[in-house]
Design brief:
The protein is α+β, with helices and mostly antiparallel strands and 106 residues long. The protein is built from 3 helices and 3 strands, in the order βααβαβ. A 3-stranded antiparallel β-sheet has the order 2-1-3. α1 crosses α2. The protein is elongated and about 75 Å long.
């Protein structure tokens, strides 16, 4: 018979509690790319309409896109980022502008 202090005895039972941690979903950066054809006011309109920016914020970000070639316009979950990119691209095509919008993992 096993002694209480021996390994495998009744006092050596170890209970482990598993904690499940939910991970936050990865985030994606949505970016606008500069081109030489899309009017600046159209870009400002896109930023206001699809990203909820004020006119001043949209104008500043449009200038960043214009000067640096691209700018991050928002960070979202995959589904939201994908939707925003699709909305911007569709809107630009309907208005016959070559504006490019992409996303990449943060």
């Amino acid at each position: 018979m096993a002694d209480k202090d021996e390994p495998g005895g009744p006092s050596s039972v170890v209970l482990t509690e598993t904690k499940t941690r939910t991970q936050r979903p990865p985030l994606y950066k949505v970016m606008l790319l500069n081109d030489d054809y899309t009017p600046m006011e159209f870009v400002v309109h896109v930023l206001e309409r699809f990203f909820g920016m004020s006119h001043a914020q949209a104008f500043e970000l449009m200038l960043t896109v214009h000067k640096k070639g691209l700018a991050v316009v928002g960070v979202f979950s995959y589904e939201v980022a994908e939707t925003k990119v699709g909305q911007v691209m569709d809107f630009a095509r309907r208005h016959q502008h070559p504006l490019q919008c992409t996303m990449e993992k943060e």
